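This entry is passed on directly below:
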Amino acid sequence: MKLRGRFAPGLGLLLLSALWAAGWLVPDLFPRFGAEGVSLPVGQAILFGVFAGLCAAIASGRGLEFPRGRRGWASAGVGVGLFVIPACAAAFARGRISDFDAVAIFCLTPVFAVVLEPTLQNCPPHRGKGALAGCLVAIAGSLCIFPLEAPGSLPAAAALCALLTAALAVAAANCIAVRIASSKAGISILPMAAQAAGISAVCFGVMAVAIPRATWTTTAPEIFIPKPFLVDLPGLVLVFGLMSRMAASRMAARFLLAPLFASVAGLALERMLPPVRGMLGLLLLAAGSGWLVFAPAESEGDGGISLRVAASRSADG
């Protein structure tokens, strides 16, 4: 599940972002593509359950040891922070604020990752002010494309707070996941991925039971040939595969690249040029996210070697 090669991590992150962008565009391009009768909790429970089962089966077949104790709880927290909390926050915010506002809020995730990374990974900042500057440039561009409106009501303000909390949770979980994945040289990410996905499947399964609309009324073809298994499942493989090869702040750039790819693809499909503000936003978003992904790190090194050494020393100490 590890990505190899000097340029593989960056290319993997671009592919992950492209998959996310494709996932956003699929419902508009192919309205009948996917499992129409499956609610979000049910679909996510199936997706994460299948992914957790595959990772656990491969890890068990290789005789890999699963995280226990504090590291086991941390692995479970990674699943909740990366997947469950954002899904719950997005569901709560839907109808209270616009989708553009939600995208703008999640664009703040790289900023939170840059700030939290030194503390949660117990290692020096990899790019420091340079990474933060790149994030701010990209956020300025995202606000040109997705202008954030001030909440006009208490429910809208609560939705914004929920999305901010979710973005912070994603950034923290990403930092913790990278720390676990990089704690020992050559350790496999499969056991942690199985535990993180397993707890996510359980949480979504509980939601499926608790929410009346979440019913198992779908036929088999709709379950096994939906968008989640053509887009989201490969995305999960890339997310966990990149954790031992990239800093958390760099991985968080997917929250900037995915809206960029989706915007460019949307303009191409509609065969139209954006206004001056939109064009400026695309340029700033591309420049900031590109710097965050491809700028040389001060202490990360090629393939995240220094990151693994620093985290390993912290864990052993």
